Amino acid sequence: MSHILILPGDGIGPEIVQEAVRVLRAAEQRFGLDISLDEAPVGGAAYDLHGDPLPESTLNKARAADAILFGSIGGPKWDTIERDKRPERGLLRLRSSLGLFANLRPAILFPQLADASSLKAEVVSGLDILIVRELTGGIYFGQPRGIREENGERVGFNTDVYSESEMRRIAKVAFELAGQRNNKVCSVDKANVLEVTELWKEVVTDAAKDYPNIELSHMYVDNAAMQLVRAPKQFDVIVTGNLFGDILSDEAAMLTGSIGMLPSASLDENRKGLYEPCHGSAPDIAGQGIANPLATIMSLAMLMRYSLERGDVADAIQAAVEQVLDQGLRTADIYTEGTRKVSTEEMGAAVAEAL
Amino acid sequence: MSHILILPGDGIGPEIVQEAVRVLRAAEQRFGLDISLDEAPVGGAAYDLHGDPLPESTLNKARAADAILFGSIGGPKWDTIERDKRPERGLLRLRSSLGLFANLRPAILFPQLADASSLKAEVVSGLDILIVRELTGGIYFGQPRGIREENGERVGFNTDVYSESEMRRIAKVAFELAGQRNNKVCSVDKANVLEVTELWKEVVTDAAKDYPNIELSHMYVDNAAMQLVRAPKQFDVIVTGNLFGDILSDEAAMLTGSIGMLPSASLDENRKGLYEPCHGSAPDIAGQGIANPLATIMSLAMLMRYSLERGDVADAIQAAVEQVLDQGLRTADIYTEGTRKVSTEEMGAAVAEAL
Ligand SMILES: CC(C)[C@H](C(=O)O)[C@@H](O)C(=O)O
Ligand SMILES: CC(C)[C@H](C(=O)O)[C@@H](O)C(=O)O
Known about the structure:
With 355 residues, chain A is α/β, with parallel strands linked by helices. Chain A has two domains: 1-109 and 258-355, Isopropylmalate Dehydrogenase (3-Layer(aba) Sandwich), CATH 3.40.718.10; 128-255, Isopropylmalate Dehydrogenase, CATH 3.40.718.10. Chain A contains twelve helices and 14 strands. In chain A, strand 11 (263-267) and strand 12 form a beta hairpin. The radius of gyration of chain A is 20 Å and the shape is globular. The model of chain A has no long low-confidence stretch (mean pLDDT 97).
């Protein structure tokens, strides 16, 4: 029996997660899976209930689970509360507490949605990049950090820090994944300015020796931000630190024009993982039943593939999503003339049906 | 008499700077300017001559000058030398020693080159963004930094640090410049994770009180990287720290498709400045006479505008550049069928002639 914890979160989180659960139920039936589901509050919702965006009870359930399906968190309601209680902090603590150091963010262009991209068709058609972002280190978690007084004024400071072993383990994940794809890894750094990334470049280069079939290249982060716009198809797997990964994965996601379609996985050493859509909690459309559940449904597919080692189920979910797209079903965010606009629930039901 | 120091640097630097000087000579004649020119080595060229990418003699000349026209630096030849001697370090020390804290990077789409963009025409036509990047602080210069031993392994670390006064003075530059444009400033931070940028957001918000006509907005850096791809025309002036500015300005530059066309200015408190093209030293095409000198020529225009307070001369240079583009002259990097391919020198001569 596999234990999956559902963390709906805030904004559109509950609606989209509900549709992913619908698809999960359909997958259970079709494949005879043995799954137990539990649910817990996280983010602003948890703060409202327990005064904490990651209550102890939620963290305990997360520790016990084999995999976590996460909706989305945050909203203007919690933007002004004490820093440590904000929804984002709950997510950061969850990533860190569970050791979810490997963040996998695919940027894939669905041929059915090619028009949605702001880039020319020939630049992005067939785009399929995987960004591997280190998720539990770097400047996100580095100490010392804070705001201090100095010479009569305030000074803000943060520390970007990575150890060799942290660098090596994320590099390995990138090399392993590239081996299942097109055997190319581009490591992104700012080694010409930052010592921490100078070491990064050295360690990644050294780690590559165990992967003679992988072609490793290095790129400065400013150049990578340019190359993603100029010629994104030059990339297969990109591996980088927490902050650069945050920036570049969002940039890469937007190349597809449909961020509502992009899933992500955050894995620990044992492939236990947290799965969440790349998009945010979209408080402006929450509760209206118009959000796109497909990124969450495809996050479920990643969950099947990586944590439950059921690539067959993942493939079937992915195929079901493609099928409803081929049928012309679209939520509002990906709607174009000539297609059929459907609600969050209709979309979820259609994928479950196709499965 | 105005003193301008020429720092040709490496790669294509000398070729492109030579054409900018040709245009400067033409401007001198037409406008009766009184200018003294001097030249000094910098970057790899200076390392080869003096063992230092920023020799004392070059720095002294830079201090004495009213403005500096800079080519480009770096190349594979110097990639493996001792870290502190690399060409980039010379440039960083120059920025820091002269207090050039305000880096202005326009991203403008030339209608004549609209096809060069990898983005759809409607997304970028008429694009005109100004990125104001803080250039002498942040993680580029923060202490402590380095690589240390810890628990039997190496750990790399850097410090991102900004004082209130540093934040306030760059914010002011952005507000002033926005006042001469479309009165909009978007401040980019990662205030939901990094304390240093939380303070940034607060200080920029406070500084805005002196500029009631400017509309200030805030955006997280990951979202900014996305929005630049999705809908870049929503921006007027973007203000941000050193590292985010490095990344976002290169991304924005690439939206235009012709990085060979983009100039930049780095100003101190008194509008003394260093002017350089946004593109790099392109060692692969150096010495072939095919590099595009227009970014350097437009950097000269910025020099006229900001350091010499000769907006009229700047406008004339800019108009001359537009004129040769209208005539269909193109260097190899911006060549398309139906236009006339010219050399670096022919392009420089044509602009000088048009002036
Ligand atoms: C919400 C925020 C803390 C988070 C991050 O920066 O990691 C988000 O942008 C993401 O990429 O998952
Ligand atoms: C060469 C390098 C140190 C420099 C920087 O990072 O500032 C360059 O990328 C730039 O943007 O001018």
